[in-house]
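<instruction>
Derive structure tokens from the sequence
<entry> Chain with its tokenised backbone below:
===
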Amino acid sequence: MLLQPDESVCPLLLRLASPDDDGFFRQLFAANHSYFANSGLPEVMVQQLLHQQFQLQQQSYQQQTPKPEFYLLTLQQQPVGRLILARHPDYLHITDLALLPVYSGRGLGSELMTALQQYAQQQQLGLQLRVEQQNDGALQFYLRHGFQLQSQNGNHLQLCWQ
């Protein structure tokens, strides 16, 4: 396993994901893309859109990230989120970090980010990620955790932490 946060600092546990976790990852995707459910479309179409968008996201992650490591995040043995990391020679790329909305705003993401930063520091690695420019909540989260703008490509910002 790549990393495991100190439970006294971060109550989230991480384990490498297995194919059995795919159902939860689909639920997580749907919960974080509720605009489909609120679109007024028939439920069948909403489910089709969610399925297609989830598949496209997974394909995109596989294409843009060499050898990604998928982690299931659990809290008190309940799945609550996902972390996707890719190791590069000089840095870890955070491909995805997502929590169920009910767990957002509780400090869990901050605790996980602190654990990731401590791990990266111990390994003498930086952290990098891409975030959509219009995703202000995520952008502010990363800026609060010391990430800095490295570049912009279209509507995506490349952020890094050293």
Residues 43-64 form the longest helix (22 residues). The chain is about 35% helix and 30% strand. The chain has a mean pLDDT of 86.
